[in-house]
Amino acid sequence: MSADASALRGYRRTATGGIAAIGAMLITFFATAGTGAAAPAQSSALPPGQGFALAQNYRIDPRAGNLSIGINFGISLAGHQNSVAQASSQALDLGVIGTSLAAEGCDGSAPTLPPDKQPQPLQVDSRDPTAAQGKQADETAVPLPIHKFALANPNPYGEAITTTAAQGIPGVLEIGPGTSRSYSGLLDGGATREAKATSDISSINIATVVQLTNIHWEATWRSAPSGGPTEGKFTIGGATIGGTPVPTQDPNQVIAQANQLLSTLQLGIIIDPPKIRQSPDGKTQFVDPMGISIVPSTQRDLVASTLLGGIQPLRQSLFDALLQAKCSNATYITIFDIVLGSITGAGSFNLTLGGVQASSGEIAANPFQLGTFVLGSANNAAGGVAGGTAGTPGSHTDGTPGAAPGGGAGAPGATKNASPIGALKSPGARGGALAGVGLGCLGFLAALAEGDRRKMRRAQREIPQFTV
User: Which of 78, 147, 155, 229 has the fewest beta carbons under 10 Å from its own?
Assistant: First the structure.
């Protein structure tokens, strides 16, 4: 028998040892499958899962061609995933205008409005201990009375409320005070998982001929034994069209009557009713905004063309002087031209009011989970929320506002029960046994391999050496 064949046969012991080690690990795995750390007992509480809710008060969006300079007002966002909740309240988002103002000046000078001087969102995270009490602030970056409030706690639960004051041009278009609110998380001691977004505007006055009051948008996504999973609503509390009050049981009919009057008066204004819908994948509930658009009007465009034609020479000389004084004034001139063009037929003007969306559900299980670890309920996994947190909203299924800013002992509905928060369970008997068997098998294989190595070295030394 050759030396090579003998060497290969010497490794049979290692192969046999490896097969035995693998067999021992498999036997231990299946034999201890029922003796590990017990899975958490089933309860009526839902797993935290995930959720998201968004609401806004209104968006002003003048356009010229494909260029939009839209500004969003009164934005509230809230979301949660597993044990973490977050919320954000933003007075306004300047969009492309903010980007332009934050850029370096055309002459290399400092930005007109640096990013840190622009309106900032008020954001909270449940991992911050102070977030459960709620934070609030008034917007100071712009001369608009807008209030922001946000809270987040480890239940998990996040909530944001943004309040805007009345805006508009008297006699043309007036928007009353508005409130956007969103929340997402576990309610009723963990029995309900819910994401909800609402937007309310107290009144809208269009050219003094159409008045709508108490306009309400609402989107809810709920997981609870006693409640339906989704709901979308749009309602109008009161309406006066052409000086005559009209019934509001059917909001679409109210808007149709308003559009009929606006068309008769040839004001070039049309109202687009909201749509209540779900996303194509069926996982998000939407209630679209109500739109107010400037459309072509022969009478209005003729008047506007006459006025603009008369002031065009003055406009040109004024803008030339502004550009010579400071080249960065080009940003303001561009904005002025877009806004003016959007209401005189050169572009389009869109005002969207309200608009909400909500989504909530369980997190998909990991398809590669082999059962070695268990995700379950841990009452104290997120800083020990048992016993409740001051200022924590307990139940909001009725749509009432949450805890007052500052919370404290008087905050409504402090949660008494710990929430089911996904946490990694500590290793049980099965994990310990597998670890011991694995280490033992590795040591056994290493000893076999070392023995074979020494045997082969010894055999090589015994082979006669021939020299030529």
Answer: 229
